[in-house]
Write a structure and sequence with these properties.
Layout lengths: L1 E9 L2 H8 L9 E11 L4 H4 L2 E8 L2 E9 L6 E10 L13 H5 L7 E16 L4 E13 L2 E14 L3 H11 L5 E2 L4 H8 L20 H25 L3 H20 L6 H30 L5 H21 L2 H16 L9 H5 L2 H19 L8 H21 L6 H36 L8 H5 L4 H17 L6
Antiparallel strand pairs: 1-5, 1-8, 1-9, 2-3, 2-6, 3-4, 4-5, 6-7, 7-8
Helix pairs in contact: 4-10, 6-7, 6-10, 6-12, 7-8, 7-13, 8-9, 12-13, 13-14, 14-16
């Protein structure tokens, strides 16, 4: 069994062709045509268990590879791997691999489900500090009559520290418009077996009960970066309101993770990333505010046409931002910091890093709940700005619950988790409605549309007092709930 560490970068076909024909690296690359068949059970039990099984043919050699994902990291893939040569396209499934244990009697139902065909160019990049295998793959993944293009660079560390991968990645990024890759070829294949995704919500973060606080932060932040990149990929192809919303959510979640885990982190580094994320979030936010208003405006009315034009302009600004070197570099810099940043080694934060994640979670969630309790006491008499602060505090608690909930398994805790989350969501819904009431006039004022005849319909809500009463009721209900971490 081997441990592989890879950094994946994606690029478009034109950039890949330019890369292949460039002289950035000394010497011609090795070129191979590669075909791979991926296998699973009819109910995709291997995928659900975090395992991929493939047989790859290169020339006359067939190699079976089994990979077990330790965690879905943001662009940096570290996985356990088993490799053996095989005679044909029949998988060898025995006790040398985890598959019999995972599948039991179902192991006999393993069959081909999709194929990958790529042309692979390979360079070996050596220095005194590290040796890295750099490959450029161009081709496609096929499942039935559906296909997905593959155009990516993979940097695999053969010797040295992970920082060398990022140094090489930045050398490449200085010449070619690459982006952080967060999707494996096997994931591309499995995606072809499902309906096309219009947007990607946050994935569940599965944390081990033995994890440290630093382990938890790395997994959580990586999950946020992955969610952003999945939705960014959709937005680069089309102006999709839900993908934009989820991309914005991922940035808010990441900033919340910075806040929740601030005792572990270097404040100067976090300040820089927070500033960049706030900027990007504001660009997405302008389009999101207009999407919300546009969904409520009567089609055909003059206000609808004005909002539609403003929305098109906001999405053009989003497209410009996402196409910038600034955003491409941000995701790569975040991932480098997550893997190699000073926060991982600073002596002053060692105790905080090494603290059990479960202990950290219980203390943190208690503090977050106490903040919501304190700030939400007088919802009925608060100003809009104060209720907005309650909303942000409740949202941070919700993200914390989602981030850290897996540290508290068990049926009883799961029931409490569900009830607590439902109460928290009700509070957020009411506070969100109040925030929409406060935001809509400001957006219309900014666009000079407040006096448009159709604006009145956008600002018409059920009585504000009733929403406030519902928010206060949801607040009381939340505080009555038993916590799942106690």
């Amino acid at each position: 069994m081997a441990q592989e560490v890879e950094l994946k970068l994606v690029l478009d076909a034109a950039a890949a062709d330019a890369f292949a024909g460039s002289d950035v690296f000394d010497g011609p690359p090795r070129t191979r045509q590669m075909q791979a068949v991926y296998f699973d059970t009819p109910d995709l039990a291997l995928s659900q268990g975090g395992v991929s099984l493939r047989i790859r043919q290169s020339g006359d050699t067939r190699t079976q590879t089994i990979k077990v994902a330790d965690a879905k990291a943001a662009g940096l893939f570290a996985r356990s791997e088993w490799e053996i040569e095989v005679a044909d396209l029949t998988p060898v499934i025995d006790d040398r691999t985890p598959i019999p244990t995972l599948l039991g009697d179902e192991a006999g139902t393993v069959a081909p489900i999709f194929t990958v065909a790529v042309e692979r160019l390979t360079w070996i990049v050596d220095s005194d500090e590290a040796s890295i295998e750099l490959v450029l793959d161009r081709g496609h993944v096929s499942a039935g009559d559906r296909q997905s293009p593959v155009c990516e660079l993979e940097l695999e560390l053969k010797r040295g520290e992970p920082g060398a991968l990022f140094a090489l990645a930045k050398t490449i990024a200085a010449h070619f418009p690459v982006r952080l890759g967060v999707v494996t070829k096997s994931e591309r294949g499995y995606d072809l077996l499902r309906p096309v995704s219009k947007a990607f919500k946050a994935e569940r973060v599965a944390l081990s009960r033995t994890a440290s606080a630093a382990d938890a932060f790395e997994a959580i932040a990586g999950s946020c970066i992955r969610q952003y990149r999945l939705n960014e990929t959709i937005l680069l192809d089309q102006a999709d309101a839900e993908a934009l919303h989820q991309a914005r959510v991922s940035l808010r979640r990441l900033r919340s993770a910075f806040s929740i885990f601030k005792s572990l982190l270097d404040s100067d580094e976090v300040q820089h990333f927070n500033s960049e994320l706030r900027w990007l979030g504001s660009v997405l936010g302008e389009a999101r505010d207009l999407d919300v208003l546009l969904a409520k405006a009567p089609p055909g009315a003059s206000l609808f046409q004005e909002l539609n034009r403003a929305c098109d302009a906001a999405y053009a600004a989003v497209d410009t931002a996402l196409g910038s070197d600034r955003v491409r570099a941000l995701m790569l810099d975040l991932t480098e910091w997550l893997v190699c940043g000073a926060w991982r080694t600073a002596p002053s934060m060692r105790d905080a890093r090494d603290a059990p994640a479960r202990q950290f979670a219980a203390e943190t969630l208690h503090k977050q709940l106490r903040r919501v309790s304190k700030r939400g006491r007088s919802l009925a008499t608060q100003a809009d700005e104060e209720r907005h602060e309650v909303r942000k505090t409740a949202k941070r608690l919700r993200y914390g619950v989602e981030f850290l909930g897996s540290l508290f398994p068990g049926k009883k805790r799961a029931r409490r988790y569900g009830k607590f989350m439902r109460s928290l969501e009700k509070l957020q819904d009411q506070l969100g409605a109040l925030n929409d009431m406060a935001t809509a006039p400001m957006v219309l004022d900014r666009l000079g549309l407040r006096d448009d005849p159709g604006a009145k319909s956008l600002l018409a809500h059920r009585k504000k007092s009733k929403i406030i009463d519902a928010a206060a009721e949801a607040y009381d209900d939340l505080l009555d709930r038993k916590t799942f971490w106690g």
